[in-house]
Amino acid sequence: MGEQLRYVAEYQGQWVALLVWNAAAYKLKLREQWIGWSDRQKKRRLPLAVNNSRFFIPEAFHIPNLASRVMKLNLQRLSSDWEDAYHHAVLIAETFVDPERFRGTTYKASGWTLLGQTQGFQRSRQDFYEPHHKPKQLWVRELQPGARTILRGRNLPAACQACEADRAPDGAQAPEELRQMDRLFGDLPDWRRRKGDHSISSLVAVTVCAMMCKVCLGQRDLAAFARNLTREQRIALRFPRDFSKRIHTYIAPSESTFARLLRHLDNAALQRALLRWQDHLLGKRDSAGDHVSVDGKELLNSQGLKVASAYSVTQGRWLGSEPVAEGSNEIPAVQAVLKRIDLEGSLVTADALNTQAETARIVVQEKGGDYLLPVKGNQPGVQKNVRQLHKSLSRAFSPSGHNLQRLHL
User: Fold this and answer.
1) Residue 127 pLDDT more than 60?
2) Cα gap 50→21, rounded to integer Å
3) Is residue 309 pLDDT above 70, yes or no?
4) What is the dihedral of CA 324, 330, 336, 340, to 10 degrees?
């Protein structure tokens, strides 16, 4: 099962050795300590390790040094052959030796390292192990210099990246961070008539974490991201326990659960919860001296849906959003966003579409801010007035002066 390669060594048309390589063991305590990678890295990069499950030499060819010679030739080409077959290289090799039958002399002579003995368990089915009372020796070898450093590093080389390409991103949040998010999202309204298996707050927390990992926010991608969460992360988000298995597992939300969330979640309540979470992370925003930028953008894969959003350029934080009504433009949406934001002492900028008298009035008179709005050819009357004012005021003040004069148009 899974990725595997088989080799035959020939001499004068005779088969003198057989080797079989396949996927590495799922869990080996000694190997994990030897590599030094985290559980999350092991989960994603285990395909970069291979297991020499068979090494057979017929009795007629028990010749001194033949085994080590065959092993050397095989290891020289193993990684490139694996990349040709499965589009990713391999970095380390492992094997098990039964000490009651063999001494591991070939592996020792080929530069392998003996880590110790296994604990004598075998995997009988998913997530369940049972003792077989026959511990094996565990031998390992790096297939290139610094392989262990690469496996526990932040980024993989290009030849190894394919093993992670089809895997959902990992949530980087610690369990305590997820518990805090779950609490901060706890007041989101629940539209369901009966209590669901997963709380709304935990579903939103998963969605926010997926967004920060740049996951495409469709229900299928969200469900895959949730399934990739660790056991500790699932406990922190209060996922329900799966009592059908003998070990403690916790059920991740399904695609249909996320589909209903995306369809029914209250937008205004979600914004309040997200802003509250942002304040928890970054502290309260100080509007004095801030630069606020507002703009409208069409969302990807939204069939034309546009959203107007405001951002603090100075502090690098999101301040709110408003969907653009069907058949309208972003001007009313931008005005609605500005009315919800503290703009006291802030400078507001926008594109020429939002150079509107009502928008300027909201910024200055209602919210106590200033504005800097461009004028283009889409408003020829305003553009003409500005040019005349600029010409008549060209001697009244220096553009390089320190005073910013406000023009009320």
Assistant:
1) no
2) 6
3) yes
4) 100
Determine the residue type at 390.
H
Q: Apex CA 242: angle with CA 236 and CA 246, to 5°?
A: 115
The pLDDT assigned to 406 comes to: 47
Edge to edge, the sheet with strand 317-323 lists 317-323, 306-312, 291-298, 347-349, 370-372
Please say whether the beta carbons of 145 and 162 come within 8 A.
no
CA of 373: how far to CAs of 261, 350, 385, 396, 402, in Å? 38, 6, 14, 21, 19
- 310 within 8 A of 319, measured Cβ to Cβ: yes
pLDDT level of residue 407 (50, 70, 90 thresholds): very low
pLDDT of residue 337: 94
Residue 334 to residue 296: CA distance in whole angstroms: 8
Rounded to whole angstroms, the Cα distance separating 47 from 376 reads 57
| CA–CA distance, 41 with 250 (Å, rounded to integer) | 21
**Distance of alpha carbon 245 from the chain centroid:** 28
* For the chain, counts of helices (H) and of strands (E): 15, 15
CA 72 to chain centroid:
39
pTM (two decimals):
0.62
Give, as one character, the DSSP assignment of residue 25.
P
Report how far residue 289's alpha carbon sits from residue 17's, in angstroms, rounded to the nearest whole number.
76
Report for 83-92, 131-140, 166-175: range of highest mean pLDDT: 83-92
What local confidence, expressed as pLDDT, does residue 342 receive?
Answer: 93
Query: What's the mean per-residue pLDDT of the chain?
Result: 86
301: Cβ contacts below 8 Å, ≥ 6 apart: 216, 218
